[in-house]
Amino acid sequence: MEELKSRPANSSPLTPLGFLDRAATVYGDCTSIIYNNTSYTWSETHRRSLQLASSLSSTGIKTGHVVSVLAPNIPAMYELHFAVPMSGAVLNSINTRLDARTVSILLCHSESKLLFVDTLSQSLALEAISLFPPNENPPLLVLIKDDEDDGVSSTIDSRFCCTYESLVEKGNPGFKWIRPESEWNPIVLNYTSGTTSSPKGVVHCHRAVFTNTVDSLIDWEVPKQPVYLWTLPMFHANGWSFTWGMAAVGGTNICVRKFDARIIYSLIRKHGVTHMCGAPVVLNMLSNSPDTKPLKNPVQILTAGAPPPAAVLSRTESLGFIVSHGYGLTETGGLVVSCAWKREWNKFPLAERARLKARQGVRTLTVTEADIVDPESGLSVKRDGSSLGEIVLRGPCIMLGYLKDPNATSKCLKEDGWFYTGDVGVIHPDGYMEIKDRSKDVIISGGENLSSVEVESILYTHPAINEAAVVARPDEYWGETPCAFVSLKAELTRKPSEIEIMEYCRAKLPHYMVPKTVVFKDELPKTSTGKILKFVLREIAKGMGSSSTRVSRM
Ligand SMILES: Nc1ncnc2c1ncn2[C@@H]1O[C@H](COP(=O)(O)OP(=O)(O)OP(=O)(O)O)[C@@H](O)[C@H]1O
């Protein structure tokens, strides 16, 4: 069989962009996008994306150029996920909640040639450009006007070269989109959330995005033509690849500018939403809001991005949501591990189901291998649910590397063939993984490693607690002790004291894991993607000094 080799017919580069051509044929007359009073069909989304790609090419955008976008979940943001790479360029979606200084740094770092700006992010973009060093060329600016304000104001700030719609209008609908010469060509540049350090520029290729998109659809069992509500920002790792995924299955994308529980519940009812995604903070808001109402029809919700406390999972499921739980990093494009659900687990009571579902799980189908290794020996940890190690992965959706940062790239993409995630976890006897912490968040008390996630999951079961985060506080004797920062639910008739919270934990946790300090806060500091900023809390805890002078262990 040696003479049988790869040939042009069987080795064309994998890319998710072809999903849109197919959607225009199969689902041409079906609704692709709904946003307020605007709606499109799949043939319109296809045509508009080609027109935009053609305009980008005529503007001088070439293969490999970076084109950025600063926009929430609006139709233009969806179209750009196809149009930009169809012009050969690399899409860089920027988080709209970042400050001007960070946006400026990212635009400079990526050498972005053109920036699409949502109408509400104009001042952020203009300030970011004003902070550019004099020797750097800022990107061209294109304004995305909202369908709501179209026609109201026809003038635009002179610093914008044109509007998004004018680019669409003048483009050629028959444009032949630029296929990648190699499937290893970059397609997106995504900056990490900056939870543990400054954001790093993750570059993914067409092949990685193709596999991750198909993988995520299979893993979540997404059927044809779902009604998908965009509660997860598309700028967060391209909405875990469901931007391209919705074209693959001909779904209807319900776009929404911002997360608000009342609006979300009303859109679910109005459009018959079947699927949505969100970080655990979204589940917490949905199940803790005054607008919370049990659903008429079940809605599939996929959560990832941070550890979901079992208490939040069971509260969300009791409303009629069917929660799936996955794990991934910007560096993996989307989800790479998921809590693959077994039918026999359905017979367990809600709390037990939630406990099982809070585990991150097993590798998804296209991930070659996932393991947890001992940091010293590099060997797999025991499957005993208690031996800690670092989660490592290998597979097609691992990033090409960090832009202009070979040191950081080689630190996590190591010579031994693994991608080191920086997450610490255990493997249970049934082979399911569970994250215990990020390596930087592990608390070491009296020489013992203590999982802040485990303490938090107990705090979340307290009826008065809204959100909780546990970090290390220095201690003269133990080295570190757990310090809990909590926000309380609104409208409590009686607020618990610090001692009561500690006693609540003492009844449910080994003594060394019980927080020695409890701090009440109105709100916990978060990253722009909704993750609790533990390093900020750690600084506060550090500033409080030692938690004890020589005391005996509780
Ligand atoms: N299901 C999950 N359970 C627990 N943690 C999760 C889960 N999914 C993702 N995470 C956490 O999110 C991290 C990936 O987040 P992301 O790529 O958005 O940026 P970040 O790591 O928060 O930012 P930075 O690398 O800049 O600090 C993972 O490494 C992990 O710690």
Automatic annotation (TrEMBL):
Coiled-coil stretches: none
Gene3D superfamilies: 3.30.300.30, N-terminal domain of ligase-like
Alphabetical list of SUPFAM superfamilies matching this protein: Acetyl-CoA synthetase-like
InterPro entries noted in UniProt: AMP-bd_C, AMP-bd_C_sf, AMP-binding_CS, AMP-dep_synth/lig_dom, ANL_N_sf
Record-annotated AMP-dependent synthetase/ligase domain positions: 21-403
GO terms assigned for molecular function: ligase activity
One Pfam family recorded for the sequence: AMP-binding_C
Domain AMP-binding enzyme C-terminal as annotated: residue spans: 454-531
Keywords: Ligase
Source superkingdom: Eukaryota
Manganese recorded as keyword: no
Family per similarity comment: Belongs to the ATP-dependent AMP-binding enzyme family.
Matches recorded under NCBIfam families: PRK08162.1
Record PANTHER family: ACYL-ACTIVATING ENZYME, ACYL-ACTIVATING ENZYME 8-RELATED
Protein name listed in UniProt: Uncharacterized protein
Lineage, broadest ranks: Eukaryota, Viridiplantae, Streptophyta, Embryophyta, Tracheophyta
